[in-house]
Amino acid sequence: MKSAQFYKTTAWKWFSRYILLKHSKNGIAKCCTCGKFLEINTRKCHAGHFVKVFDSNSTNFSTAFDEENVLPQCYQCNKYKGGDQFKMAFKLQELYGEEVIERLRIKSNQMFKLDKFTLELLAKEYKSKYDTLKEIKGKYW
Asked: Which of 92, 110, 11 is nearest to 48 (CA)?
């Protein structure tokens, strides 16, 4: 699977919406690396990975849908600064504890096949989580 295909999957759609909504207040999220405030339902607000899904010639599907690996990021930090992993690591440690970075690095070395069936299961899981969360936080899409 190529990058363009991955980010067009229904699983990614619902996962990213869930992550952005989870880390927002009144439809506004703060970029985890530069601190810019962003409306979550715009193209300027991304769900950025600490351990990249596509890194050079390798893929890290084992961490692609790990909620502790993804935070809101602005378009500039995610696209042009490569996710600014150094700053993102500090934010992840602040939110999830010191051991999160090592756990993600270990998990990224585990083989994981992202097939059609798995993507369908993930899409259903995160659509359900999103629907539950939108009842609490509101609907922004």
From this structure: 92
pLDDT tens column, 8-45:
999 999 999 999 999 999 999 999 999 999 999 999 99
The DSSP annotation for 66-95 comes to -GGGEEEEEHIIIIISTT-HHHHHHHHHHH
Confidence class for position 72, pLDDT limits 50, 70, 90: very high
pTM (whole model) above 0.85: yes
Report the side by side order of strands in the sheet with 24-25.
24-25, 28-30, 37-39
28: β partners: 25, 39
**Residue 35 DSSP symbol:** -
Length of the chain counted residue by residue: 141
Q: Cα–Cα distance between 82 and 122 in angstroms, integer?
A: 25
| Residue owning tokens 């715009």 | 42
pLDDT at position 59: 87
In this structure, is the dihedral angle defined by the CA atoms of residues 132, 133, 135 and 139, taken in order, positive or negative?
Answer: negative
Nearest Cα to Cα of residue 34 among 25, 44, 43? 44
Res 67: pLDDT: 98
